Structure formats: C-alpha cells, structure tokens
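Entry:
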Amino acid sequence: MFPKTIKKRKTFLEVSKTGSCFKSKGVFALCKKIDTNDLLVGYTASKKIGNAVLRNFAKRRLRHLVREFCSELGNGFIFVFIATKRTVSFTFSQLRSDFITSFKKVKAFEESRYVI
C-alpha cells in the first residue's frame, strides 16, 4: 500500500520545526512521530536542483524509493524527503543505499526521543 502524500505547507513546516532530521549526500530526510496509525510522506525539490524537468525527476526517484521501502518506513510517522543536487546525479543504486541509511537513522532517532 502506497502511503498518503502531504500536500499542505503547514504540515511540511510542522515536521521541519519539531521533527528529527538527517542529511546525507543524496537525500535530506525529516521525520516526526504522530499519534495516528498512518504513514504520511512529502517530497520537496527546490530550484537549486535545476529546472522543472530535473526537479520532477528527483521527486519521481524519491517516490519510487518510498514505494519500494514502504513496509520498512512503518506506520505512525510523517516523513519529508528533500532532494539535493546529487539526487539527480547519483546512480540509482547509490541513491538507494543513501536513502536507506537516511530514513533508518532519522526514524531511529525520532523513536528514541519518545522512549521514557
């Protein structure tokens, strides 16, 4: 099952202010734990990446990776993946390994924040 997509700016800002973050060379990952049992994912690519074609290409690559690792992301989280310039230039296998380390580290850090 593909996760729900974030579309409102308010949600993106909430995750960036109160969530955990991890920056790797290919992907900047943000994560926030939520009370519901949903998985929400947002994608961002700024104009620093390039023109609209490159930004859309970067977001397509990120969406494909999320679809591939959807079961490992888990429910009860909001993830925001921000593309970097290397999201476009990396080979897909490099981007996949970078993506895996990014989301695992940010998710582990976010889970450890709520352990009492």
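Residues 92-113 form the longest helix (22 residues).
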